[in-house]
Amino acid sequence: MIKVKDLEHWKKFLRKMERLPQHSIQSVMGGWKKGYIDTPGYYHKGDIILFLKNNMSPTDYNKLKKWYINNPEKVKKIMKL
Q1: d(CA 32, CA 49)
Q2: What is the DSSP letter of 35?
């Protein structure tokens, strides 16, 4: 299991990802073949982690978590969009 150090920041990042248009996220993460991880894109309220776990495959959710941990500079770029 992949653990995130700052759970509140992780939640903010996930909410940001859900609000951004796909092309904005791809510009930072890369295209489909370069590691882009798609999220459902229709989150409105409630527990963002539970929402994503229920609407993404476990593999994709863990890929997103791993990407978040391994790419702090790109996470900062997404948070500024």
Answers
A1: 23
A2: T
Cβ burial, residue 64 (10 Å; 0-12/13-18/19+)? buried
CA distance 79 to 27: 13
Instruction: List pLDDT tens digits, range 38-57.
Output: 889 889 899 999 999 999 99
Looking at every residue in the chain, the average pLDDT score rounds to: 90
Scan for tokens 């990407």, then name that residue. 67
CA–CA dist 24, 27 (Å, integer): 5
- Measured in whole angstroms, the distance separating CA 73 from the mean position of its chain's CA atoms is 14
By C-alpha distance, which of 59, 55, 38 is closest to 46? 55
Q: What is the pLDDT of residue 1?
A: 65
Sign of the CA dihedral running 69, 21, 80, 43: negative
Predicted model pTM: 0.88
